[in-house]
Every structure is written in C-alpha cells, then in structure tokens.
Amino acid sequence: MSDENRGVVYLGPNHVEVQRIDDPRMETPDGRKIDHGVILKVVSTNICGSDQHMVRGRTTAPSGLVLGHEITGEVIETGSDVEMVRKGDLVSVPFNVACGRCRCCREQHTGVCLTVNSSRAGGAYGYVDMGGWVGGQARYVMVPYADFNLLRFPDKAQALERIRDLTMLTDILPTGFHGAINAKVGVGSTVYIAGAGPVGMAAAASARILGAAVVMIGDFNPERLAHAKAVGFEPIDLQSHDKLGDVIAQVIGVPEVDSFIDAVGFEARGYDGKEQPAVILNQAMEVTRPAGAIGIPGLYVTEDPGAHEAAAQKGNLTLRLGEGWAKSQSFHTGQTPVLRYNRQLMQAILHGRLPIADIVNATVISLEDAPRGYHDFDKGAPRKFVLDPHGMLKNAA
C-alpha cells in the first residue's frame, strides 16, 4: 500500500470520525495468521442503516470500532492459499464473513457461519458482536476465505461504469431480495413494505423484478415517500392514517396483502411517534392474508440498551403471535445469506434489468465526508450514501 489507511471510527453515540487506522493484515481478529485472505483497495463502501443503529448508541458497540460491512474493492494482495482470485480483480464482498466449510455454509446459510465468530453464529465486518472483523469504511481492508466469499466482476471496465449499482450487491440489494423471497413474492402478488429507507426500496425493486402486481411502501418521511413514488411504487403516508388495513384497501380493494416485508426493525415507531419495537411485526400479522408470508430483513437485536421498554432492552418484544398462528402465516427472519443471491442479481444489473442505484438514490461522497453522510442519513435523507475512498467513482457519480 502506497498511502496510509484511513477509516470511519465509532467513538460513541452520534460520534464518528475518519482517522488513521492500522493497515490490514492477513490474520484473524484474535491474531492467528491466515493464508486464505486478500487485501483490497476499497473502491466503494456504503453507509448502512445497520451502521446507523450502532452510531445512535442503540447497541453495545465499543468505542474505536472501525465501521463498514458493504465493501467493493480491487484485489492488491493475495494469500498463498488463494487460487480463484487474482491481483487486479474487482470484487464484491458479501457482508457475511463465512468460512465455506461448516454445516451452515454448506447449506447456503452463510449469515450464520459457525466458525468465524467465537461468541455466536454469524460474522460480519465492522459490526458489534460479529466476530471482531475490521470494517471496510476505509481505504484498505482484509477479506478472509477469499475464494469462497468474493464475487468477481467478469469485466472490470464494465463494472466500473455500473459501480453505483454493483456496490449494492454487498448487502442491501440481496437483503431486500431475501425479504421478498421469504415473503413469497411472485407474479401477481400484492406486497406491502414497511419502511422506505434503502433496504425497503431494495425490497420494492426486488418485488418488482419478481413480478409483483402492486408494491406499496409505508413510511412517515414525506421525502422518502416522494422518492418512492417517483421511481414507480405506491407510497403509503403513515402520518395520514391510523389503521393500515384501511389504506391498503384504498389501493387494492381489500385490507390485506399476499406478502409483507419488514424493512424497519427494532427502532420502529407507532402512529404517535413513540418507539414500539414490535409494532411492525404486529401490523404484519394483521394485514397479511391467511396463509400469506412475512419476510423480516429489518434488524432485531439481542440487546438494545437505548430501548424505552425494559423487556426490549433484552430483545424481548410484545408480539400478538396468536394472530399469525391462527392465520397460518409464515415468518422468516435473520441475516441475509448474500452468496445465495448476489451472482444472479449482478447479472440483472449488468444486463440493465435492475437500476438499483436510481431506486435507492445512490449518492457518492468522499470517505472524509462520512460523518456528514451519517448525520444526513440519520435525519431521514432519501438517499443511500456511497463512500469513495480513492476518488474512483467520480465518473460513475
């Protein structure tokens, strides 16, 4: 590496800075040397709503954590055990750190790899309780198990032209797609998505490409709703209604949908503006038809020190589960196994079928501007902020 490494560092609630950080090394978080990794020059790295949960102080993230799990980069160094990836390749990094060898990885459940995190199943870059892997909102980063984890773009020049779209393959596009798949969206489906942030918009794009007849997106934020409408979805203004089924009926004639996608998670708010961490899940059971399906890509945490309810601080929610049981609904939660979807989504992007950058309103800023991006995103800006650590996205922007 010819220049110093810099990264976005979490220093406490609502406080991030771009600082000099250590150069990446071919080793695990506990210091064991590895030969299966690569060093990447980060081409693009995105601010995610999951990062925002930490930055708000709603997790047990420690001060000093280098953030960032949405990483696209150029390989500049390979370990001796890497065979399929070469120096100079442009690659997408799934946010899941996965070994490719354990039972879960072999079953394509890479979001809950059994070997990359000593405290629980599942690992991720730059995230609390996810194994200690250094984040990629930086100039350089190390990726382990490179042959298994990395998705190589077949034409580097073509990929750089579409980098604003392809950068979404690391997390939010597969996450939205996973939510739509788990909500059993198909040709002719009626779909409601809770949350018009980037993941909600990615879920809407996924529902569209899967053949949904109607895609509704609910939110309190008028700017986000305006953007959703501008890119062709049906906005649901939650400030103007207090019963979700009634407004759904105004759109499709009946007060229930085939498929419901929760793209909000544990920081959900009710109509009164107060936090109600289970409100989306309870709404989902209420407005999803009997035998319908609910996909839950929105984040729910095991501990939320900032919760107003004592039970929610321990991850316990007040669910009306009996309604979902009585209606024989299906539920699916958990981290997205990105490798299950990213190759086919890449093809959809490269062949012009999925203009995801426009749908999520991708906005390129410099790495040094990351604190401003976090601030604006926290205020509800209808944008997906893409960091450009080396100035390589200027033409694409």
Automatic annotation (TrEMBL):
EC number: 1.2.1.46
Cofactor: Zn(2+)
InterPro entries: ADH-like_N, ADH_Zn_CS, AlaDH/PNT_NAD(H)-bd, GroES-like_sf, HCHO_DH_non_GSH, NAD(P)-bd_dom_sf
Listed name of the protein: Formaldehyde dehydrogenase, glutathione-independent
Any one GO molecular-function label of the UniProt entry: formaldehyde dehydrogenase (NAD+) activity
Top-level EC class as recorded in UniProt: oxidoreductase
Taxonomy, superkingdom: Bacteria
Alanine dehydrogenase/pyridine nucleotide transhydrogenase NAD(H)-binding domain: residues covered: 178-241
SUPFAM superfamilies xrefs: GroES-like, NAD(P)-binding Rossmann-fold domains
Family of this protein: Belongs to the zinc-containing alcohol dehydrogenase family.
Keywords on record: Metal-binding, NAD, Oxidoreductase, Zinc
Domain (Alcohol dehydrogenase-like N-terminal): residue spans on this chain: 36-147
